[in-house]
Design brief:
Layout (H helix, E strand, L loop, with lengths): L2 H23 L1 E2 L8 E3 L4 E6 L5 E6 L2 E6 L5 E6 L5 E9 L2 E16 L1 H4 L8 H6 L3 E8 L16 E4 L9 H14 L3 E7 L11 H4 L3 H4 L32 H7 L9 E5 L8 H22 L5 E4 L20 H15 L3 E4 L15 H16 L10 E8 L2 E7 L5 E2 L7 E4 L6 E2 L1 E5 L2 E5 L8 E4 L9 E2 L9 E3 L3
Parallel strand pairs: 2-8, 8-11, 8-12, 9-11, 12-13, 13-14
Antiparallel strand pairs: 1-3, 3-6, 4-5, 4-7, 7-8, 9-10, 15-16, 16-21, 17-23, 18-19, 18-22, 20-21, 22-24
Helix pairs in contact: 4-10, 8-9
């Protein structure tokens, strides 16, 4: 063997282990895995980590992007906007291959336990799971992890919707995604990041909370003193190094690792926790927009954000006249949700005041929850001719002993069954009386023989109101109060 040959052999032997180490160190963010859905019609960030200075080449759909890992080992490229495609393709990153990749719309499904309630525990769970054969619908379940600092990586992997996988996924998310998929016939990816008994503050970053005087005092502190009960069925909660109701803890552990993944939008079902006291229920109208804008900044996208308003729950109370200016914390929280939705661009509110359960804080009818969220997306984001809201009261005018209430989304406005119920009226003494309500076109006239000079009207203003105002689409009216105080 010549000296040159020997040198070549030695060089190969030395380089072979080094190449193996380099290949092993290259990795992608967890949200990139087999069976995933990439977002259509917008730039798609692909990112991960490698050796400092390592060249990284990303290939997909016949296009190639190249970059170099920075001084921290992170790399990121942006694929050009892609058209929807249900054909399984591969995403290649150097020697890594991600198989069965579709292109469609990706929606983030987040909140507390009513978002994490799985398909198998909702109405007709067994039948729905058996029928869940939608190969173009894909799921990614983010494990429930609280962290004191923002994380770059999370667990989880994409799964194809099937009877073997659908049972453990968010019922509200599944029914939303299924409706969108069946209507548009495009692949849909659903990312579930939800944990039961959690506060909105825990889902908001510390930097966002610290940006306002009202929420700055929460920084790094528990939102409530009571400890959460054992995990609800369907929760993917795992306690690690922080309480799940520390401010920012769930943002750090479950939202930050997803950013800046390209998504079409988000659906949100949370608020029961924030209705525990009057201060937080009222403050939620400012907290929720703060959180939404925080997420939009982190994802670098002004994506749509659709909110599920709290359903009716608990024993029906005494007469509304029993307490002056009676306050229901769930009603205040619902009002906060409605105000947040009306103040944010590209947002919407799914009212569920008619499909709750007096005895169960986790109502099983998640089919209508998902469907109503889908109506909002179809009408607002996909520009389809779909009614997406029940009647919304836009103003009150007092004439004599009557209050005239005007509404939008009021085509075919009617009482769902029997006489119109749910309205109460009060004079200056603040004592609310059951009201007579009569529909005149798109206006409702409210009065009571006990109130000669009305100053205030409320509708569906209790934890579990008896109310039945709907429009021709069968969608329920939003609860409201005039004035708001």
């Amino acid at each position: 063997m010549t000296s040159n040959t020997l040198a070549l052999v030695l060089t190969c032997l030395l380089l072979a282990p080094l190449a193996a180490v380099n290949a092993g160190e290259l990795k992608l963010a967890a949200v990139f895995s087999d069976h995933m859905v990439l977002q259509r019609d917008k730039p798609v960030p692909i990112w991960g980590w490698a050796n400092i200075g390592e060249k990284v080449t990303v290939e997909f759909a016949g296009k190639t992007k190249t970059t170099t890992a920075d001084e921290g080992g992170k790399w990121i490229v942006k694929l050009d906007p892609l058209a929807a495609n249900a054909e399984p393709r591969t995403l290649k990153v150097n020697g890594l291959v991600i198989a069965d990749v579709l292109v469609g719309d990706v929606w983030l499904c987040s909140g507390q336990s009513n978002m994490s309630v799985p398909v198998r525990n909702a109405n007709n769970g067994d039948a729905e799971v058996a029928d869940a054969k939608h190969p173009q619908l894909r799921f990614f379940l983010v494990p429930g992890v609280a962290k004191t600092k923002p994380q770059t990586q999370c667990g989880g992997e994409w799964q194809v919707c099937s009877p073997e996988t659908a049972g453990t996924f968010s019922a509200a998310g599944y029914y939303f995604g299924r409706e969108i998929h069946q209507t548009l016939n495009v692949p849909i990816g659903l990312i579930q990041a939800a944990v039961g008994s959690t506060a909105g503050e825990a889902w908001t970053s510390e930097s966002a909370l610290s940006s306002t005087a009202e929420f700055k005092t929460l920084s790094g502190k528990p939102i409530e003193l009571r400890k959460a009960k054992a995990a609800n069925k369907g929760d993917a909660w795992t306690q690690t190094d922080g309480d799940k109701n520390l401010s920012a803890s769930l943002y750090n552990g479950m939202i930050a690792p997803l950013t800046p993944f390209a998504i079409r939008g988000a659906i949100w079902y949370q608020g029961e926790n924030n209705a525990n006291d009057a201060v937080r229920a009222e403050a939620y109208r400012r907290l929720l927009p703060l959180m939404v804008n925080d997420w939009r900044r982190a994802f670098d996208q002004e994506f749509p954000f659709y909110i599920v308003q709290l359903a009716n729950f608990a024993r029906r109370g005494d007469s509304p006249a029993s307490d002056p200016w009676r306050v229901s914390l769930w009603s205040v929280l619902r009002e906060s949700q409605a105000l947040a939705a009306s103040s944010l661009p590209k947002s919407g509110l799914a009212v569920t005041i008619d499909i709750g359960d007096a005895k169960q804080i986790h109502p099983k009818n998640k089919q209508d929850v998902g469907r109503r969220l889908a109506f909002i997306a179809l009408a607002k984001e996909y520009v389809r001719n779909v009614e997406c809201s029940g009647p919304v009261c836009t103003g009150m005018k007092i004439e004599g002993d009557k209050a005239f209430l005007s509404f939008t989304h009021a085509e075919g406005i009617a009482a769902k069954a029997g006489a119109l119920t749910g309205f109460v009226i009060a004079g200056k003494d603040g004592r609310f009386q059951e009201a007579q309500a009569i529909i005149k076109g798109t206006t409702v006239l409210v009065s009571s023989p006990e109130v000669s000079k009305p100053v205030a009207v409320r509708y569906a203003w209790s934890n579990n109101p008896k109310c039945n105002l709907v429009n021709s689409a069968g969608l329920p009216a939003q609860p409201f109060r005039f004035p708001m105080k």
